[in-house]
Amino acid sequence: MSVTNLNTANPQTNPFLDPTILWKKKSRYQSIDFTKDHRGYLLSLNGWPQVCSREEARYHESVATLPMMLARKAARCVILGGGDGLAARNILRFRGVKQLTLVELDAGVIELCSKQPDFVRMNEGVFQDPRLELIVGDAIEWFMNSKGPFDIIINDIEVMFTRQPKKMTLQRHFELFLAMAEKLASGGVAVVTVPDDFDDNILSGFFEVYGEQLPPEAQRAFLKSKNVFTRTRILLHTLFPHVLQWTIRFPVLGAHTTYYLSHKPMTRLRRSPNPPPRYIKADMLGEVIR
Question: Does 156 participate in catalysis according to the annotation?
Answer without folding.
Answer: yes
